[in-house]
Design a protein that fits this description.
The protein has helices at about 1-5, 15-45, 50-55, 60-70, 70-80, 90, 100-110, 120-130, 135-160, 170-185, 190-195, 200-230. It has 2 domains: about 15-80, Homeodomain-like (Arc Repressor Mutant, subunit A); about 90-230, Tetracycline Repressor, domain 2 (Orthogonal Bundle), CATH 1.10.357.10. By secondary structure, it is mostly helical. It is built from 12 helices and no strands. The longest helix is centred in the last third of the chain and has 30 residues, at about 200-230.
């Protein structure tokens, strides 16, 4: 692998014709990916044929095998690539970050796909369909993406709340914080219908991020106050049972 990489010619030495072929190849792959995403979201994996995808992308059926291996490979790419990772833990689980910095990075990364507009709607629909007609990718996403992201958020919250062993209340807090951007992501159609100006521009998503960070900080503050109350003698429940 190293030898192959080191022997590749610099970009400025590649002929214009070859660069054009690579650009055309990337465009062809993207057209297939987007056509597959749309059809998979509408009809599901089993009911979508490679011929339909190729026709929608104005491509040859063989190109699906060339770029993705087979229909399953295209489905996997359509399911994972446009949305990216739910949240890269390295972006927000940093010991030197303030709580605000961690929450801002977490929510920013979570909502980044929304800046793709219509594409994210199709991705969301495909994810819903995958839950109803599972092929195994949803279980993989939970194991490989969602669970590590949740664990990293738990680590952030535990660090800032001074909790050595995460408990159920901390997990509820983490799920509640995640629900803020998740609700916007899966409820995009509703927002579009009721108040389109809230999501129709990339800058509008940045406003959501800033406001959600404030909400999330407030949730953490309430959790901290509740824990302090629970640990005080006044906050502890009294034993009212007869001796």
């Amino acid at each position: 692998m190293t030898a192959a990489i080191s022997s590749a010619p610099p970009a400025d030495l590649i002929s214009p014709d070859l660069r054009g072929q690579r650009t055309d190849g990337a465009k062809a792959r993207q057209q297939l990916l987007h056509a597959g995403l749309k059809l998979f979201a509408e009809k599901g994996f089993a009911k979508t044929s490679t011929r339909e995808i190729a026709q929608a992308a104005h491509a040859n059926v063989a190109s699906i095998s060339y770029y993705f291996g087979d229909k399953a490979g295209l489905y996997r790419a359509a399911f994972t690539e446009p949305m990216g990772s739910v949240c890269d833990p390295l972006l927000y689980d940093q010991p030197g970050f303030t709580l605000q910095q961690s929450l801002h990075a977490y929510i920013t990364n979570f909502l980044a796909p929304m800046k793709q507009g219509e594409l994210v709607q199709q991705c969301t629909r495909l994810h819903f369909r995958e839950m109803l007609e599972p092929t195994g990718l949803w279980a993989e996403e939970i194991d490989n993406d969602i669970t590590p992201a949740h664990a990293a958020l738990i680590a952030v919250l535990a660090r800032h709340l001074g909790i050595a062993v995460p408990d159920d209340a901390l997990h509820r807090l983490a799920f509640s914080i995640t629900a803020l951007p998740l609700q916007l992501l899966i409820g995009r159609d509703c927002v579009q219908a009721i108040r389109p100006g809230l999501i129709d521009q990339p800058q509008a998503i940045d406003v959501w991020v800033s406001q959600m960070v404030v909400f999330a900080e407030a949730m953490v503050a309430v959790e901290a106050a509740q824990r302090q109350l629970d640990s005080s003698p006044i906050g502890r429940p009294t034993n009212t049972e007869p001796s």
